Amino acid sequence: MKDVSISAASLAAQALGWVDPVTKAVVPPIHMSSTYQRDTDNNYSSGRIYARADNPTFDQVEATLAALEGGSRALVFSSGMSAACACFLAMSPGDHIIVPKVMYWSLRNWLATFATHWGLKIDFVDADRTDAVAAAVRPGATKLVWLETPANPTWSVSDIAAVAEITHKAGALLAIDSTVATPVLTRPIELGADIVMHSATKYLNGHSDIIAGALIGARDDAHWAKLRAIRAQLGTILGQMEAWLLMRGIRTLFPRVQWACRSAQSLAERFAGHPMVADVLYPGLASFPGHAIAARQMHGGFGGMLSIRVKGGERAAIATAARVDLWKRATSLGGVESLIEHRASVEGPGTPCPPDLLRLSVGVEDSGDLFDDLDQALRRAHNA
Fold first, then answer.
1. What pTM was estimated for this model as a whole?
2. Does residue 378 form part of some domain?
3. 240 shares a domain with 258
4. 148 CB contacts (<8 Å, ≥6 apart)?
5. pLDDT tens digits, 189-234
6. Are residues 124 and 189 in the same domain?
7. What per-residue confidence (pLDDT) applies to 4?
8. How many helices (H) and strands (E) are present in the chain, helices listed first?
9. 8 Å CB contact between 171 and 51
10. 302 and 379 part of one domain
11. pLDDT of residue 1
12. Beta carbons of 363 and 335 less than 8 angstroms apart
């Protein structure tokens, strides 16, 4: 689209306005080929060689993600984990890295096991405290600071701009897992981030029918070339059908996220005074510790994720999840269906997740129906 004044919501809805040049289809085709023919002079004038490195089906979704995040380039991956791990594999053994204590559990576990054995020096810090990040930085040795904000599953909020200043002063890169915020609510590159990561399985796709990941870079530089090479060499490429489905999901990203934000805010406010709920964790509540930072760097809402801590402890929380009808007991987030999960059970021993916590991913159902269903489950569990 030539009109630079077009909103991000319109860019997403029309997928940058791309039209197939051959058929004029408003939805470009899926390119299934795994390989591409050489020219008679032994060159590749198409720029394509082999699909493990690239595929035409990626072009539109990567261009759209780069535009939505205000970045230079984007790469799609076979999963959010493969996208995140690429950022750490681009480091060298001995490099010092700072990551949050509270973050996506699978990545946290990988960092604490494989990444440390590989030679990375990792400090887990309270990343919602800027002073804790500053104290952990080792100028000249720290090469990457990783933030997840809001952070799963307590939804703590990190100050991206403040941490970016600290990180860059130390000569390091700042990467943000913005899966929960999405570009609808936060654009980390505008706040100083160098790389943005998404588990595209979640809100970007939004329909719980693919696994995907994405990286968006502020600059197309030597480090970005290394990330691209890691994707090709490890084969963590996204499938063609998955890339097409991801692009389809992104077209409805804005209305889905906006609806989920409104519903999550309503649910957080209603459960904040519930007799069977000990605490509600949601950045949109004025009482939430990170609310002021969230209000500064999140625009248009505070996300579709919240957690409640159930009175009666772990047993009451699990009993509550067992009694819902509309909410689905399942792992994941960001889909059109609302999900409930006793997160500590999933993460297992060593989790920092409180045992009385239920993680809620709010979908696009009626918020009143969602409240009534969870309310009856809480009361039935309490009375059991």
1. 0.95
2. yes
3. no
4. 100, 102, 103, 104, 127, 158, 176, 177, 179, 180
5. 999 999 999 999 999 999 999 999 999 999 999 999 999 999 999 9
6. yes
7. 56
8. 15, 12
9. no
10. yes
11. 56
12. yes
| Residue 306, helix vs strand vs coil | strand
Rounded distance, CA 305 to CA 343, Å? Answer: 13
Taking the CA atoms of 284, 213, 100 and 145 in sequence, report the sign of the dihedral they define. negative
**290 in a structural domain:** yes
| CA–CA dist 137, 292 (Å, integer) | 24
Give the whole-angstrom CA distance, residue 194 versus residue 30. Answer: 31
Instruction: Say whether both 190 and 257 belong to one domain.
Output: no
Q: Which helix (H) or strand (E) holds 13?
A: helix 8-13
- Residue 1 counted as domain residue: no
**What is the number of structural domains in the chain?**
2
CA distance linking residue 174 with residue 119, whole number of Å: 20
Q: Which of 25, 46, 268 is nearest to 155 (CA)?
A: 268
What is the arrangement of strands in the sheet containing 195-198, beginning at the earlier edge strand?
Answer: 73-77, 213-217, 195-198, 173-177, 142-148, 96-100, 121-125
Characterise 155 by phi-psi region: left (phi > 0), alpha (psi -120 to 50), beta (else).
left
Q: Helix, strand or coil for residue 279?
A: strand
- Residues with catalytic roles: 52, 104, 177, 202
Domain extent, residue 365, equals: 253-383
- The answer to whether 259 touches 9, Cβ cutoff 8 Å, is no
- Domain final residue pick, 221, 250, 279: 250
User: What is the distance between the alpha carbons of residues 285 and 273, in angstroms, rounded to a whole number?
Assistant: 12
